[in-house]
Amino acid sequence: MTRLLLVNGPNLNLLGVREPETYGTATLDDVVELVRVTASRWGLEVEAVQSNHEGVLIDAIHAARLTCAGIVINPGALTHTSVALRDALTGVALPVAEVHMSNVHRREPFRHHSYVSDIAEIVVVGAGVQGYAFAVERLAGLVTGPATP
User: Fold this and answer.
1) Which of 4, 41, 51, 149 is most buried by a 10 A CB count?
2) Is 105 part of the annotated catalytic residue set?
């Protein structure tokens, strides 16, 4: 079975608690379940990792080059700061879907730049938790072929 890597960066472990007016009340477990259910409709498995530590995320991305067909990533604040995360993503040469639950372009100016967007095949912003499902649907189409489930 083909596998996707789901990467969630710093502070996303606080989904459902942190700023619910911005991020909603769904938890990280809810996100992982949504991604798994969506991917399963395409015959895909999901490996999920969340960390508040950049190196853990980079190690997971490196390992994915041997086991995964694509990456869905919400880098959290690392979106705006991490060249190392970007280099890891380009280094494994897998298709990437970048997800942000809030519309980062309507937020603070420092959130308007992403080190990931220009290397991602798919970018979804402002769709809340549903953005993960949108990203998986599109990425699944890329890695499994044009047919829909």
Assistant:
1) 4
2) no
